[in-house]
Amino acid sequence: MVQADKRERLIQAADGLFHQKGFEHTSIADVASAAEVPLGNVYYYFKTRGDLMRTVSEHRLASARARREGLNALPSPRDRLIAWVNSFEDSTEECTAYGCPIGSLCLEANKLGGPMAKDASVVFRDSLEWMRKQFLEMGFADRMAREYAARILGGRQGSILLANTFKEPEYIRLEIARLRKWLGELPAGKGRNGK
Amino acid sequence: MVQADKRERLIQAADGLFHQKGFEHTSIADVASAAEVPLGNVYYYFKTRGDLMRTVSEHRLASARARREGLNALPSPRDRLIAWVNSFEDSTEECTAYGCPIGSLCLEANKLGGPMAKDASVVFRDSLEWMRKQFLEMGFADRMAREYAARILGGRQGSILLANTFKEPEYIRLEIARLRKWLGELPAGKGRNGK
DNA sequence: GTCTATACGGCGATAGAC
DNA sequence: GTCTATCGCCGTATAGAC
Predict the structure, then answer these.
(1) Is B161 a domain residue?
(2) A155 vs B155: CB contact, 8 Å cut-off?
(3) CA–CA separation, B43 vs B49, rounded Å?
(4) Rounded CA gap, B115 and B172, in Å?
(5) Which of A52, A72, A81, A129 could make a disulfide contact with A46, Cβ separation 3.0–4.6 Å?
(6) CATH of the domain at A171
(7) Of A12, A6, A17, whose CA–CA distance to A98 is shortest?
(8) What's the average model confidence in pLDDT over A148-162?
(9) Which residue, among A119, A124, A162, would best test binding to B if mutated, counting the most B CBs under 10 Å from its CB?
(10) Is B39 part of any domain?
(11) Is residue A25 part of a domain?
(12) How far apart are CA A172 and CA A95, in angstroms?
């Protein structure tokens, strides 16, 4: 199907360009040219630039979920979390070069105002939710589970910002190692789901 | 002096707007109108938009240094660090609403490429350097001092990103509390400056 | 030094032929 | 469904009167 192919190529191109150059600095013409689709044709698939951005976010959400699907085979929630954190290593170079694709987009969307902010945040919201469930399964109270999930995501985002700012991947690697160590040593919670 | 006054007003206006709307989304016209200076006159004070941005970064660097000056009166490096971390509380609301002014600018500048990236990073570089000195004075080896400095800055930046994304200041407050606790309990280093 | 008017380019979005 | 041509707006930067 030619349609789906072009649409897919546009999403892929937009995803990459939003990451590398930022949303605000990526024009429809940039996306069209990278996807090798004529400029005007883009508007057949996406009504506005914001629409394209929302689609990219949905696409990223699906990707993140798919990557976690594989982890659900692991029997222990602790191991799932550690495997998840370890998987961050694959993107160290890209994140050092361009920052976190999701984090950058959230920040940009928030400055723009409007409904895009919520669209961009769905990936983080979903990640936090998944991590929270793992910590609940480890026996932590809901409050702790939320706090720990935020610690992982926040720690990672902070390390990426530093790595990107100073073009130094070591910040990311150190944080991954620290999170892994912390998860490994963390005593399991006592309550059954914090009851 | 009318000159210095206008220049100052332009810097202040640009500082605020870069924070609230982002650099890429703030036009010279926006800055001029916020500072109540005619559009064309801006170019008498700043050659280009990038020039204005560099000036704002220098201005922020000076502010951060001035705020730390007061802390140098404290005799213990640990207390200086704790006081520094505590001072983050003042900006919790603004950071929740608009993100970290410095972090946002660094990220944007990195996406733009060119020399702006370095201009934007000077504030972080200077903060890290100051924190590193405090940890050295506490007796930590240089490697640990750098790592700990990055932990404070990274932890803070990550918490701000989450707070901004979800419009929830609690992320920032929790991280401040965690850093304060960590600094309070951290055993002093053994070596004299890591020797 | 100050301000107005405007040149010039780029971008989002659309019209309309095929 | 596909693609070209183009409209209209906004942004940076400059020219030049005062």
Answers:
(1) yes
(2) yes
(3) 9
(4) 31
(5) A52
(6) 1.10.357.10
(7) A17
(8) 99
(9) A162
(10) yes
(11) yes
(12) 9
What's the number of domains chain A is made of? 1
A175: contact with B, CB 8 A cutoff: yes
In strand C, the nucleotides that come within 7 Å of a protein beta carbon are 1-6, 10-16
Is the Cβ atom of B29 within 7 Å of strand C at any atom? no
- Could you tell me which of A149, A117, A161 has the C-alpha nearest to residue B174? A149
What are the pLDDT digits (tens) for A80-139? 999 999 999 999 999 999 999 999 999 999 999 999 999 999 999 999 999 999 999 999
Residues in contact with B52: Cβ distance below 8 Å, sequence separation at least 6, in sequence order = B10, B11, B14, B28, B31, B42, B46
Q: Structure tokens of B68? A: 């730390």
Q: Which tokens sit at B158?
A: 């990550």
CB contact under 8 A, A154 and B161: yes
pLDDT in tens, B10-53: 999 999 999 999 999 999 999 999 999 999 999 999 999 999 99
Distance (Å, whole) CA A92 – CA A159: 10
Is B127 an interface residue toward A (CB < 8 Å)? no
pTM: 0.97
Taking the CA atoms of residue B60, residue B66, residue B72 and residue B78 in that order, the dihedral angle to the nearest 10 degrees is -30
Of the pLDDT bands very low, low, confident and very high (cuts 50, 70, 90), residue A1 is low
Q: What is the domain range of residue A174?
A: 2-185
Supply the pLDDT for residue A116: 96
Could you tell me what percentage of chain A is helix, strand and coil, using 3-state DSSP and rounding each to the nearest 5? 80, 0, 20
